[in-house]
Amino acid sequence: MFDQYYGFSGRPFQLTPDPNFYFESITHRKALSYLGYGMAQGEGFIVITGEIGSGKSTMVAHLMRKVDPEQMTVGQVVTSNLDGSELVHLVAQSFGLDVAGQDKASALGAIETFLHEEARDGRRCLLVVDEAQNLSFEALEELRMMSNFQLGSHPLLQQLLLGQPEFKQTLAQHDRLEQLRQRVIAAHHLTAMEVQEVAPYIEHRLSLVNWKGYPSFDPKIFPKIHEASGGIPRRVNQIATRLLLMGAVEQRSQIDCAMLDQVVEEMARDSRSEAAQERKAAFSRPAIDLSSTSAPPRAPTPAPAPAPQQGSSPPRPNDDEMSDLRAAIATLSRAIEGSPRTDGDLAKRVEALETRLEEQEQSVRYLLQLLIEWLDKDGRQKAA
User: Which residue among 31, 129, 313, 363 has its CA within the 20 to 30 Å range from the CA of 111?
Assistant: First the structure.
């Protein structure tokens, strides 16, 4: 919408990585220097970390455009929570190898054969692994083992690992990753943009979509955008998009600080609303006592109540039935009361709720069935 209103030739602040919009901030320039040094070594691991939206993927996409395919073959993998075997198959597929239905050993053999062929043809091989913080120890160990592939004394595979800050911590602190740490030849952590870089960053992206100064930006707005975004490029993009959208809706010729205040408040309100919805969804089911590592006892499956004979008075609920009913209610009450409804450790509680939901639902079904049977018997007795 706003791109048409302001006469832009495209969307200047889209959130998906696009190497055409790469902006070389101070921290990205340093990262490229480390990348250049590491790739010149032709072996080991290069590690680039940074916050979500700090521009890791955009920077690497920019770098890959400069790679000569006659000199280097690049495989790229975006990881989820994969085990070692799944990662090996994904790596093979990133190099165009068909390993469907093969076991891990066969897939590794296909990768090694491919790397040897590329080396004999005079091409180096680089594996880019994005979202490396999702990798298990087993998967990281498989990557380390692949770095052992050699042709004589010549390493066959170099790897670039991209990850969020927690991957940097994992790599530095995990006792079992010492061998991988020793093979890291270059590493850099992308920091936020400096306050003086926000204006050039915004103007750079706008200039790529035929911006001619309309709308203009109040010079005072850029330090405030840096403060609101923390200097993270993707957050700057989000704010700038909303500012331009507001400008188009209100037919503004200048983007000013008052508009920014409105946008920041709207984004904060949206975040609060999303957080409230997440909390509501998390607590929409009965809570269970997470302090115990054992699962709650399964409720016994009640035997179906015998159908009453025509003309006879249905019996009143006996003491055993009422005792079972009270016990089921007490069990659920203790489960609910035993789980504090706070935001702390929300993620762990939600995960535990999901994994143990089946047992909880059985207890609920048991309770409902007892209630229905009791009400049905009581209703028939009153009718009689």
Answer: 31
